[in-house]
Q: What sequence folds into this?
C-alpha cells in the first residue's frame, strides 16, 4: 500500500514542522487564508495581507483562492474540514454556512478573542448570523442584500415612483409596456433556476407576505396560505408574461445582463450589479434606480434577503491567536474601507456607508445602507442548506407549472420533517 | 494441467500482483468504504454517526426523488447513447467518403471532444439562451425556453451530450473503417451488391466489435453523467434533469448526508457493474 506510506510520511513531516514551530515559539509562522476570488477593479487582499504581516512580525499569510462557484466552495470545505486534513487557518464563508460549520465543529470559537461590542458596528442581520448558542464563530466581512432595480428613465417618463407593492408593480409594467410598445421589453426579472438563489427569491416573497419557512418553535411553513399565495404569484407573473419564461432557468448574471441590455423594467438582484450598470459602455448607464423590494397584500413591508461572507478560523489551526488577529484585522474598519474602494463589494460595517470618500465613488451607498439595515437573514439554522436543497425542486416545479403551490409546500414539508426526524 | 503450465500460471500471477495490489488500494478499498458508509447514518453537522443497516436502501426504494432520478438517468442514457452511435457512425462514413480536406475535418471533429465538459456546458448555456442564443435564432427567432421548460430541458441536455461525445464514437468507427480492406468492397461490387447491401452485409458486421466497445464506454459514461446537467440546469427545472449522480452529489456534499449519498452512489455503482458485465459477456461471445 504505497499511497498509505506516502501519506504517513507526509503526515510525519507535517507533525515535525508543527513541533519545530512550537519548540522555539518565536519562529515565523504561516497562516493559510482561503477565500473566493475577489471581483472588481482591483483586488485589495494582497495589499491588506502585507499590511497585516508588517504589523505582526513573524507571521506570514498565504492566500489561497477557492473555486468560483459557491457549491464547489462548500464541497471543498466539507471534504477538507471533515477529513481533518485542512491546511487552512482562516476561511471565508458564505453567511448561510456559519451556523452549519459551527455546529459541525469546524470553526474555532472566537468568543475569547472578540469583545461583545465588536459585532455592534456591523449590520444586525450580519451580526446575528455570526452567533450560535451565545458564542461568536465568525466576523462579517462583506454584506449583500436583495433589492429592486428599476429603470428610472422609464418610470420618470410615465410619472411613476418605484412600486411599493407587487400589485402596483404589475400595473406599472402593464402601463409602461403598452405605452412603449416594445415587444422586447420585459417587465420583471428575477432568479428562478433550481438553485439557492431561487430560494432567496421565494423567501423574500414570503417575508413580503408575512410568511416564513421556519417558526421559532421549529414549525415548518407556519403560515401556509400566505406562502401558497406567494408561490402562486411567482408562477402567475411567468404565465402572464410579466416575467419572461426563461426566468425559470435564470441566475443572477443572466438577469443582470438582460437588464443591462435595456430589456427589462424591473430586476431583483444584489448590489454588485449597480457598479456594472454604471460602467461607461453600459446601455443603461444613469438610467437605473434602486428601491426596496415591494410587499405583498398580507405583508407590512418588503425586505431583501441578506447575504455576503464571513471570516472564520479553522477549529484545529495551530495558530489560534494569529488567525483570530487576522480575522479581526480583515473585518476591521480600515480593511473593509480598502475592500469597498477596490472591489465590487459592499461592506458589513455600517459607518462606511457614511464615509464621504466612499460615497463619492459609490453614490448608491446611502440607499444600499437603508436597504441592508432593513434586510433579513435567511433562516439562521445549521439545517439551512439541507432545507434549501429540499425546497429547490418543489418550488421549481411550481414555477414551471407542473405542481400546485399547495402540493409543493406539502411535499417540501414532508421531506424536511423526514430529514429532521432521521437526524434527531 | 501440466507442471509447466502451472508454473506459468504462478509466474503470471506474480507479474500481475503489483497491478492487482494497486487496483485493490485505489478502487476496491474506496468502494468497500463507501458501501460501509451507506450502512450508516452519518451526518457530521448533527454529530450523527450510528448504524443504519439497510435503512437508506429501504428509504430509496420508495423515495420519489430517487425513482425520478433513476428514470432520468435511464432515459438520458438510452437516448443519448443511441443518438451518439447512430450519428457517430454516420460521421465516420462521411469522413471516409470525403476526398479533400479530410485532415481539417478530422481536426474539427475533435474539437468538442477536446473541450472540458464544464466549458461545453457553459457554451451550451449561451447557445440555449432564450433571447440571445444561437439555437432559437437558427429556429427562426423562436423563444423556446430550453433550460427552463420541463419538457425541453432533458432533450437540451441530451443534445449537448451528443455534441460532446459524438467525436469519440466517430473516431473509433473511422479507425476501424480504415482497416477494412478495399478488396472486400471491390468483390462486393463485382457480385453486384448495392450501397445499402454493402453497408448491411459488410460494413456493419465488420464494425460490430468496435460499435460494441463504443456502446460500452458511452453507456458507462452516460449512467454516471453529472457535469453537463449540474452546470446547465442544476438538475432543474423541478428535477427533470436530476440524474442519480447529481442526487448523490447533493446528498453528499450539499446536505452532508454521507450515509444516504453513499447509498445512492452504491446503486449507481451496481447499475454500472451490471451493465458492464452484460456488455463484456456480449463482447466475449463476439470474440469467439
A:
Amino acid at each position: 500500500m504505497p499511497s498509505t506510506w506516502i501519506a504517513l510520511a507526509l503526515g510525519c513531516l507535517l507533525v515535525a514542522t508543527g513541533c519545530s514551530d512550537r519548540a522555539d515559539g518565536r519562529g515565523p509562522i504561516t497562516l493559510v487564508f482561503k477565500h473566493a476570488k475577489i471581483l472588481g477593479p482591483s483586488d485589495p487582499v494582497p495589499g491588506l495581507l502585507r499590511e497585516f504581516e508588517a504589523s505582526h512580525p513573524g507571521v506570514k499569510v498565504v492566500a489561497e483562492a477557492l473555486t468560483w462557484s459557491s457549491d464547489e466552495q462548500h464541497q471543498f470545505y466539507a471534504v477538507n474540514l471533515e477529513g481533518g486534513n485542512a491546511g487552512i487557518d482562516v476561511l471565508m464563508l458564505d453567511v448561510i454556512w456559519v451556523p452549519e460549520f459551527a455546529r459541525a465543529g469546524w470553526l474555532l470559537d472566537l468568543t475569547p478573542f472578540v469583545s461583545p461590542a465588536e459585532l455592534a458596528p456591523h449590520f444586525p442581520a450580519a451580526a446575528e448570523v455570526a452567533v450560535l448558542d451565545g458564542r461568536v464563530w465568525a466576523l462579517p466581512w462583506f454584506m449583500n442584500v436583495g433589492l429592486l432595480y428599476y429603470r428610472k428613465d422609464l418610470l420618470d417618463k410615465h410619472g411613476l415612483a418605484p412600486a411599493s407593492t407587487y400589485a402596483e408593480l404589475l400595473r406599472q409594467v402593464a402601463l409602461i409596456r403598452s405605452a412603449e410598445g416594445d415587444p422586447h421589453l420585459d417587465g420583471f426579472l428575477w432568479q428562478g433556476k433550481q438553485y439557492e438563489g431561487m430560494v432567496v427569491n421565494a423567501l423574500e416573497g414570503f417575508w413580503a407576505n408575512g410568511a416564513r419557512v421556519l417558526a421559532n418553535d421549529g414549525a415548518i411553513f407556519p403560515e401556509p396560505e400566505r406562502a401558497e399565495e406567494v408561490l402562486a404569484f411567482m408562477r402567475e407573473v411567468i404565465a402572464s408574461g410579466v416575467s419572461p419564461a426563461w426566468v425559470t432557468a435564470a441566475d443572477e448574471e443572466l438577469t443582470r445582463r438582460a437588464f443591462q441590455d435595456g430589456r427589462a423594467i424591473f430586476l431583483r438582484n444584489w448590489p454588485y450589479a449597480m457598479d456594472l450598470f454604471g460602467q461607461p459602455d453600459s446601455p443603461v448607464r444613469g438610467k437605473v434606480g434602486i428601491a426596496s423590494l415591494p410587499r405583498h397584500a398580507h405583508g407590512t413591508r418588503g425586505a431583501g434577503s441578506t447575504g455576503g461572507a464571513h471570516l472564520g478560523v479553522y477549529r484545529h489551526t495551530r495558530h489560534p491567536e494569529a488567525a483570530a488577529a487576522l480575522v479581526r484585522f480583515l473585518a476591521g474598519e480600515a480593511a473593509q474601507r480598502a475592500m469597498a474602494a477596490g472591489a465590487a463589494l459592499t461592506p458589513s460595517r455600517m459607518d462606511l456607508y457614511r464615509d464621504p470618500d466612499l460615497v463619492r465613488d459609490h453614490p448608491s451607498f446611502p440607499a444600499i445602507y437603508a436597504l441592508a439595515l432593513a434586510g433579513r437573514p435567511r433562516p439562521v439554522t445549521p439545517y439551512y442548506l439541507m432545507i434549501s436543497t429540499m425546497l429547490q425542486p418543489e418550488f421549481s416545479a411550481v414555477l414551471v407549472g407542473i405542481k400546485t403551490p399547495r402540493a409543493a409546500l406539502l411535499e417540501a414539508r414532508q421531506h424536511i420533517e423526514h430529514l429532521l426526524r432521521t437526524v434527531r | 494441467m501440466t507442471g509447466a503450465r502451472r508454473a506459468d500460471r504462478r509466474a503470471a500471477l506474480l507479474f500481475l500482483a503489483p497491478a492487482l495490489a494497486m487496483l485493490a488500494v485505489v478502487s476496491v478499498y474506496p468502494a468497500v468504504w463507501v458501501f460501509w458508509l451507506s450502512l450508516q447514518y452519518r451526518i457530521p453537522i448533527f454529530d450523527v454517526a450510528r448504524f443504519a443497516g439497510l435503512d437508506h436502501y429501504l428509504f430509496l426504494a420508495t423515495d420519489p426523488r430517487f425513482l425520478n432520478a433513476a428514470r432520468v438517468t435511464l432515459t438520458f442514457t438510452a437516448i443519448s447513447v443511441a443518438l451518439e452511435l447512430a450519428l457517430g457512425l454516420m460521421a465516420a462514413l462521411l469522413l471516409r467518403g470525403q476526398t479533400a480536406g479530410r485532415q481539417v475535418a478530422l481536426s474539427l471533429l475533435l474539437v468538442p471532444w477536446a473541450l472540458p465538459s464544464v466549458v461545453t456546458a457553459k457554451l451550451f448555456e449561451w447557445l440555449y439562451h432564450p433571447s440571445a442564443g444561437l439555437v432559437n435564432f437558427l429556429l427562426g427567432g423562436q423563444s423556446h425556453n430550453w433550460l427552463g421548460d420541463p419538457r425541453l430541458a432533458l432533450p437540451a441536455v441530451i443534445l449537448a451530450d451528443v455534441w460532446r461525445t459524438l467525436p469519440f464514437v466517430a473516431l473509433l468507427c473511422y479507425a476501424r473503417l480504415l482497416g477494412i480492406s478495399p478488396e472486400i468492397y471491390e468483390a462486393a461490387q463485382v457480385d453486384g451488391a448495392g450501397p445499402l447491401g454493402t453497408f448491411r452485409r459488410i460494413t456493419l458486421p465488420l464494425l460490430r466489435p468496435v460499435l460494441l466497445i463504443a456502446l460500452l464506454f458511452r453507456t458507462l459514461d452516460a449512467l454516471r453523467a453529472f457535469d453537463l446537467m449540474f452546470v446547465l440546469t442544476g438538475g432543474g427545472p423541478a428535477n427533470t434533469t436530476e440524474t442519480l449522480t447529481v442526487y448523490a452529489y447533493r446528498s453528499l456534499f450539499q446536505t452532508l448526508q454521507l450515509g444516504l449519498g453513499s447509498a445512492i452512489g452504491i446503486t449507481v455503482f451496481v447499475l454500472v457493474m451490471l451493465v458492464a458485465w452484460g456488455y463484456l459477456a456480449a463482447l466475449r461471445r463476439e470474440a469467439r
Confidence is low (pLDDT under 50) at residues 1-24 of chain A. Chain A touches chain B through 46 residues (CB under 8 Å). The radius of gyration of chain A is 23 Å.
